[in-house]
Amino acid sequence: MLILILGVALWWAAHLYKRLAPAQRAAMGDRSRAMMTGLLVLAVILMVIGYQGAEGAFFWGRNPALVGINNLLVLVAFYLFAAAGMKTKVTRYTRHPMLWGFSLWAVAHLLVNGDVPSFVLFGGLLAWVLVEMIAINRSSAWVRPAGPFPARKEAMAAVGAVIVMIVVGLIHGWIGPWPFGGA
Fold this sequence. Notes:
By secondary structure, the protein is mostly helical.
């Protein structure tokens, strides 16, 4: 469990460094970007290894209804990631579409994984998202995008989300539990 906790803590630290020490990060220039990328890769590796090896109390598990809700939330999360990058209409309504997508992903995984290691991993990442949004909101004012928001971009974000959902689902099933119900 310690490796998992270290991975989540490193994820927090690498992301919040930009918010808590902006002058030091800016002074490092491109080295800072490379260092943060390396730390985030290490954090993901630690989280994966730690999660696979962690044990803890089990409170609930997968059932068909929760798997369906999980998949819907993850699909919306992938759409929000795409929408953030493509500056679709949803960016007019929320400053943080990517972070909201990440939070939906974490909540979705908590719905189907009711064990202590999942609480540490997905709950820890969900808490990070909320802290990150607060930190961003406190650091600067939000300028709401005015558009235009072409329907073509909306369609591309939606289709992209479905494609990513299928690909990630197949990879997920290959390395872990099958995410689309059934066996």
